[in-house]
Structure formats: C-alpha cells, structure tokens
C-alpha cells in the first residue's frame, strides 16, 4: 500500500537517493543539453537541490511529500505555492508548482506518480489553489505522456541557449 509522509527541513536528506535518480534521468534524456547538465556531478547536483529545497521549505505553504511502500521511499514531490502572475486568463490568486516529481525507476508504472499528484491536488485544493503546473524536460517523452494522462497540457515552452563567450573580457 502506498503511504504519504510530509517532510520538514530536518528530514530532507531522506530525498538524496531519490534525487540521484532524477539527476540520472535528466542527464540521460537531455543529451542535447549535455554541456548544461553533465557539467555537474550527482553529488554536486544534490547539494544544490538540497539548498533549494531548504529555501522553499522555509516558506509555510511548501509541501515535501514522500511516497512510501513497505516503509521504503519510492518517490517524492516538492511543491511550492506562490502568487499567480496576472495575465489574460483567470488563474486564481495562487498557483502550485511541482518543482520536482520523482518516482524511483523500479516503482514506475505502479501508480506512485499518480498517487503523488492526487495527494498534491487534494492538499493544494484544500488551500484554495486552482492550478497546478510543472516543467518537464522536452525530450523526456515518457514523462510528458504521463503528465498528459494526468490532465496536464502544454502552456509555455522554455527554450535554452548557451551564450558563447559570456564573462570574457576584451
């Protein structure tokens, strides 16, 4: 049975091993951005992400949800909530952003991701949040297909380009 546990900042190290699977997934599915993502090793990637998680968890509405099966972590989600940007559409006052959704490779296809998203929707919906958004690596077709099955639709595409010679002085 899948169980969800909400983590505080003092429990963040429990996510390290699972984050390593995220880092590996990103490096294997985004080879077209090799110079952006492979320049940071797994341990440094976790150090940076851990720091970011601690900053987010200092905010009262941030959710760190660990999915456990038989006492072992099989996935997690880190969700922040912030003021929605005003645009030409109505999004409500606040929006929830799934900063990380991780499912251990051996637990994929076992409803861990769906369960995490259902739990998040329940929690943020109770907080009056109407929209949930996330980013996916454009070349990770399996993740994009999963998110579409979960009701997500493309909204904005972020393009990345390295600028040659930045920081060089004549």
UniProtKB/TrEMBL annotation:
Q: Where is the N-acetyltransferase domain?
A: 25-170
Q: Does the keyword Transmembrane apply?
A: no
> Which Gene3D superfamilies does this entry report, sorted A to Z?
3.40.630.30
**InterPro entries the record matches:** Acyl_CoA_acyltransferase, GNAT_dom, YpeA/RimI_acetyltransf
Q: Which UniProt keywords apply?
A: Acyltransferase, Transferase
Keyword presence, Transferase? yes
Q: Which Pfam families match?
A: Acetyltransf_1
| PANTHER family according to UniProt | ACETYLTRANSFERASE (PTHR43420)
Q: What is this protein called?
A: N-acetyltransferase domain-containing protein
> Which organism is the protein's source?
Salinactinospora qingdaonensis
